[in-house]
Design goal:
Helix content: over 70%
Distance between the termini: 155 Å
Order of helices and strands: HH
Shape: rod-shaped
Mean pLDDT: 88
């Protein structure tokens, strides 16, 4: 192998030093500054992107806080509206209930009055019928006819005695 031949060592070392210096010069003057510039641009872009991301994050947080505030306000308004509506419906229901109760009481009073008048009419009819029956019974038992006034008076007296005795 010619590389290991000692007579070629001097020229190999010379070319090694020359190529090393040329490559070092090219690398230090051209390639490494460009790489440093590219690395610096990338770092600046990354920092800029991070700053933009932080700014967008803070804006998103602000929008979210505003959203939460509006949502809480809307919930409060909905609760208030629900409460007002519930109270309004409760009041309307109470008013309807009171009106119905008054109407029912009025109808009950009217019915009681009709019942009382029907009862009084029935009692009056009962007295007149009882008076006629008493006249007929007296006529059959005694054989003489009693006047209607006397028969009704006797029936009234008997009814008042029986009602007083029933109450006692």
């Amino acid at each position: 192998m010619p590389q290991f031949n000692p007579e070629w060592f001097a020229s190999q070392i010379f070319w090694l030093v020359v190529l090393f210096l040329v490559l070092y010069f090219l690398m230090s003057r051209i390639a490494l500054p460009r790489m440093a510039q590219i690395m610096e641009e990338r770092q600046d872009k990354i920092e800029d992107d991070l700053a933009k991301a932080e700014k967008l994050k803070s804006e998103a947080d602000e929008v979210y806080r505003a959203y939460e505030e509006h949502l809480a306000e809307a919930r409060q308004q909905a609760q208030k509206l629900l409460k007002e509506t519930s109270e309004k419906l409760s009041n309307e229901q109470q008013e309807r209930h009171e009106a119905f109760t008054q109407e029912l009481n009025k109808k009950t009073e009217e019915a009681e009055q009709r019942i009382a008048s029907a009862k009084q009419e029935a009692l009056d009819n009962l007295q007149s019928v009882a008076g006629e029956v008493a006249q007929d019974a007296t006529a059959k038992l005694i054989g003489s006819k009693v006047g209607q006034d006397k028969a009704e008076k006797a029936v009234k007296a008997a009814m008042s005695e029986s009602s007083e005795g029933g109450r006692a």
